[in-house]
Please model this.
Amino acid sequence: MKKIKQQAIYLAVLWALGAIMLLCAIFTDMNEMMTGMGCALLFVCTISLLKLWKISKNPDSVKQMEILQNEERLVFISNKAAKATLFSVIAIQYAAMLAAVFMRYNEIATLLGFFVCGQLLIYVFFSKYYSKKY
Amino acid sequence: MKNNIAELRRAAQITQEDLANAVGVSRQTIISLEGGRYTASLPLAFKLANYFGQPIENIFVYEEEEK
Model:
């Protein structure tokens, strides 16, 4: 139940953020991007909150949800997917950087180079941090 | 890492769903463990050992990788 409450609070914060964005868009100059993002946040969070409320009414669903949230295989899969995503993104950015260099888009190539280096540095930082922690 | 979970489960006459609920994982995890596609963590291995009342080495068989 604790996890469901945490998730509900998180969704409520996002819902409020969406409402603020929508209100800002309405009462200022109706920025289309703000309106779109606000509406999307409100819609998704409302549906998710309703789903969560429905689950919280059924103890079996709550138990099942808690099992799924702490499930070691799902955590393992999520970690694997995150790692694969990171290295894919770095590889794509690196390829794009090389393409930009060959096409003489120097500013874009420099920016992509910073992204690649930044991500690798963050990876090294967290590797060192976790190797000290564990 | 091989395991005897499927055999022990059948001997105990329980379903994958029952075993999953007893050790606090999803049925999909039990299916993956039985199929040898996923290796259980140490806490899960202990839970399974406690559930079947067997030592861990009777359930999980470590095999060194061929060089």
Remarks:
- Chain B has a mean pLDDT of 91.
- Residues 2-61 of chain B form a domain with the 434 Repressor (Amino-terminal Domain) fold (CATH 1.10.260.40).
- The helical segments of chain B are 5-12, 16-23, 27-34, 42-52, 56-59.
